[in-house]
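fyi for ur records
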Amino acid sequence: MTPFDLQKRVAFVTGGNGGIGLGMAKGLAAAGATVVIAGRNKTKAQTALAELKAAGAQAEFIELDVLQEASCHQAIDQTAAKFGRLDILVNNAGTSVRKQPQDLTAADWHLVMNTNLTSAFFCSQAAYPHMKRAGGGKIINIGSMMSTFASSYAAPYASSKGAIVQMAKSLAVAWAKDNIQVNAILPGWIDTELTKKAREQVEGLHDRVLARTPAQRWGEPADFAGVAVFLASAASDFVTGAAIAVDGGYSVQA
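which gave:
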């Protein structure tokens, strides 16, 4: 097997039916992996599946409610049973509630934390025995530049994304003995459905992002195909507990 070859590997991508998740799913499929995209929106998933299969991918959709622990375990167990193994988990599902901290409700807080962080823990727990049985595996947590930066309107989002990086480090240490590498990707400002809403809600955001980004553009979901393949493949077998920014230089420019 060449370092970036994912033939005979099975990948499970939460929120893989759009945005960054679909961008990574396309990259994994192009490298040879069988890709399972998991989420609640069946209509959106069918569109994503059509795109993947049109490119020659072996892809399936499994319904998943990341807010339910049982659903996380069932979806991953179903994937492993269907394909005989699970090699790659991408914890990508995410959401945000944009309010000033004093205006947040308990429901707002728990929705964001449970979607972005707790679901990733449940899915990682569910994946662990399958990866251990296979002799190893790769887990990729999707953080954010707000894993390190702050924002007045995104306290729960920033908290969840900071925590998901620390969780990746903790799992990396715990499961290194089982040949399971756990890393995080930190997206910058990417042109997705989620950030479209941010641009509508946060005045001047578009211009501020362009002014600070050395690449002078917003990122695209396709920008995550390569880093996903790297972290899912043998090329990263000695990389674990890392957090890799994919942000066009936003985080290194003052």
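The beta strands are 10-14, 34-39, 59-63, 88-91, 137-142, 180-187, 243-246. thats all i got for now
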